Amino acid sequence: MASSPRSIELLAPAKDLVCGMEAIRHGADAVYIGASRFGARSAAGNSVEDIHRLCEYAHLFNARIYVAVNTILKEEELPEAERLALELYQAGADALIVQDMGIPELNLPPIPLHASTQTDNRTLEKVRFLEKVGFTQVVLARELSLNEIRRIAAQTTVRLEAFVHGALCVGYSGQCYLSAALNGRSANRGECAQCCRLPYTMVDATGKTIVKDKHLLSLKDLNRSGQLKALMDAGVSSFKIEGRLKDLAYVKNITAYYRKKLDRILEQDPSYCRASAGHSTYSFEPVPEKSFNRGFTSYYLEGREADVTAFDTPKSIGEPIGSVKEIRGNSLTVSGINRLNNGDGLSFFNERGEWEGFRVNKVEEGRIFPLEMPPLRPKTVLYRTYDQEFEKLLAKPSAERRLSVRMEWRDNPFGFTLVAEDETGARAMISQPFEKEPAHKDQQENIRTQLSKLGNTPFEARELLICCTDNWFVPSSLLAEMRREIVNKLLQVHRIRYVYERVKPVKTVPELRYPEQQLTYLGNVSNTKARTFYRQYGVNRIDPAFELQPEKEVPLMFTKHCLRYSLGWCPTYQKQHSPYKEPLFLLYKQTRLRLQFDCRHCQMLVYLSSPENQKDEKSNSNKR
């Protein structure tokens, strides 16, 4: 017996209700959004009322709404988190995305729990444990390769979610304490200050400068649109777009781009199917380079990649449009095929290697006239960071999503009957008493015209059958009235038929053991409920979270990004050794970070070098 196709979910971000509804319109199968509190993007909170409205809209298309409640919680916040979980359940949310393992210990309604990427899901043992304690979806670490994902998928049955687009955290998610240590703003509490995007000067142990004022911890943005099929085949079922702080144009453009990509794959491979219903049409052609990006990388998906960094600028570089061909007075020409518009924003790297931008005042016969002439030279590469015409398109209604409906009009002994059934199987029927009389002219065209007017509804008439015993006269007013009534009934049927995934509250699983017996600050345990959770699974030592008790002389970041590798000194891959005396340091104003290279685990560790231990570092370097 052939197995049923595996459903594939496109999961889009939303900072608010408007973004969420547009994500659904532009093709998302699911949307993740922050609640009023406890989301890993503290600036993207939403009321329960707005989440309820978003759920009602999404559920028309069998699309799902996941709410991020994925910060670690202080003891006094547990009662509020418990109340919030119930309110979100009652509002229609389909799942909670969580980091804190105190949440499964709360008195929760039967709502599915998804393990956030903040829970550091990079091993088979961790994913298997999360599955066994009741999580229904696990967000994998961005750093995993296809082979690692395959291995996890082969030995688990939980749905696997993977990021495919957007900004990259340079550190393993949930394991970065740099912002908390330097600014008192914890990434695990949704307040990351993005210290990784700052310019650093790299020096060796003797103080010799290696690289000056570069964004050495800043990465390009993720783009795995070319590896979607490979990810499906490896076992990924949910494809996640990063961006709960991104603007509406980004959500529209990137969601539409991945929707079209996935649809082409699904059309060709019947072993997969779409996770929601309906079809979207667009008034624009999506282009990912036109939305915020720092350049793109697939980030170790197929092994260690040479160029994953954005050392020169943490800002968006947009799309490359060509290079400066000629400068004449207050204008220039560009060698390239891209059409430029009045009001476009262009950028380039100046002679000092700094990212600089200018606005196009007008374009005449291929010549560009900036508002102010920038310091350009021939052959300077230009990038478009703002496409005026493209943004105008996205500022307007740019997509419609409809459910296909089959309608049937027929007569009965007392009047007329209208039946409608959409692609999800929702079906409604209404009958209207009416004194029938033969018409003088054919009624079929008017019946089709009036019943097909579904413009401001979620439905689109794809098939309309007319089955009458005679050519009865049917007034347009009756057709319009019955059309409105059948639409309202269909909407009611959808609300009744929507199938929520409901799960029993997570309970202790006998004999199950957590992969580690001891948890340091890296366990992010910040309340008694989380301590109880881990203890019942065999963890016998539990240190408090860094946010509760900041530790000194511990790694503040673990990252697969390695500056030795980026500079060509990797002893493993490049068979080279650094010509500089280690340890190496990153300097920014008064901040001094020490680097440690863990080749066994192929990662770089970042420590804070405080004034009191700098003497020891200098003494140790002299002994080498």
Q: What order do the helices and strands come in, and which of them pair?
A:
Blueprint: E1 6-14, H1 17-25, E2 30-34, H2 48-59, E3 64-69, H3 78-91, E4 95-98, E5 113-115, H4 124-132, E6 137-139, H5 146-154, E7 159-166, H6 178-183, E8 200-203, E9 209-214, E10 221-223, H7 228-234, E11 236-241, H8 248-268, E12 272-274, E13 279-282, E14 296-297, E15 319-328, E16 331-335, E17 345-349, E18 355-364, E19 367-370, E20 381-386, H9 388-395, E21 399-412, E22 415-422, E23 427-433, H10 444-451, E24 459-467, H11 476-497, E25 518-519, H12 528-535, E26 541-542, E27 557-559, H13 563-566, E28 584-588, E29 591-598, E30 603-608, H14 611-623
Parallel strand pairs: 1-2, 1-11, 1-12, 2-3, 3-4, 4-5, 5-6, 6-7, 7-11, 10-14, 21-24, 25-26
Antiparallel strand pairs: 7-10, 8-9, 8-28, 13-21, 15-16, 15-20, 17-18, 17-20, 18-19, 21-22, 22-23, 27-30, 28-29, 29-30
Notes on the structure:
This protein has 624 residues and is an alpha/beta fold. The chain has an eight-stranded parallel β-barrel with strand order 1-2-3-4-5-6-7-11, surrounded by six helices. It has a six-stranded antiparallel beta sheet with strand order 9-8-28-29-30-27. A six-stranded antiparallel beta sheet has the order 16-15-20-17-18-19. Strand 6 (137-139), helix 5 (146-154) and strand 7 form a beta-alpha-beta unit. Residues 620-624 have low confidence and may be disordered.
